[in-house]
Amino acid sequence: MSRDQNAGRSHSRKNNNSSFEMVEEFKFLGQPQQIKILFRKIITAHCSQGMLLKNLLPSSLLSKNIKIKIQRTVILSIVLYGCENWSLTLKEENMLRVFQNKVLRRIFGSKRDEVTEEWRELYNEELNDLYSSPNTLWVIKLRIISGVWL
Question: Which residues pair with 12 in a beta bridge?
Fold first, then answer.
């Protein structure tokens, strides 16, 4: 439906016999806020806070197991805080994928190419094979749908 056709209709969601109106824009402290932009800002802020430990991850003093534990317990907790209320678009999903791959590249480092014998970054598929935990997007979508905490 176009916006004009949809103008007179009310959208709502029910949760435990309570009904909530769905809106695309609302006022907060007197300023209009668009939900899509608000979620993008929240996700960007969470990712940048999660990257505060980025200098710790490439350290050779820590084992990969410790780095993965830091990623799972600290970084992921920061990024996923409040994700049950997010409404993700493809752009936000891509932002989260890029963030996760950046963190994993810092943990696993570079790989020496067998043919050229030069150092290169790991491909996304290689990162996913090395990192045995569930994908961040999968965890977020599961939390949004069911409220399950992993």
Answer: 21
Integer CA distances (angstroms), 51 to 32, 47, 62, in order: 30, 6, 17
Q: List C-alpha distances in Å: 101 to 13, 48, 67.
A: 34, 14, 14
| Model confidence, pTM | 0.69
Domain boundaries, the chain: 35-146
Q: How far is Cα 12 from Cα 83, in angstroms, rounded to an integer?
A: 20
DSSP for 45-113?
Answer: HHHHHHGGGTTTTT-TTS-HHHHHHHIIIIIHHHHHTTGGG----HHHHHHHHHHHHHHHHHHH-EEE-
Residues in the chain: 150
* pLDDT tens, N- to C-terminus, the chain (150 residues): 334 444 444 455 555 677 766 666 666 566 665 666 667 888 888 888 888 877 788 888 999 999 999 998 999 999 988 888 787 889 999 999 999 999 999 999 888 888 888 998 999 889 888 888 888 888 888 888 876 555
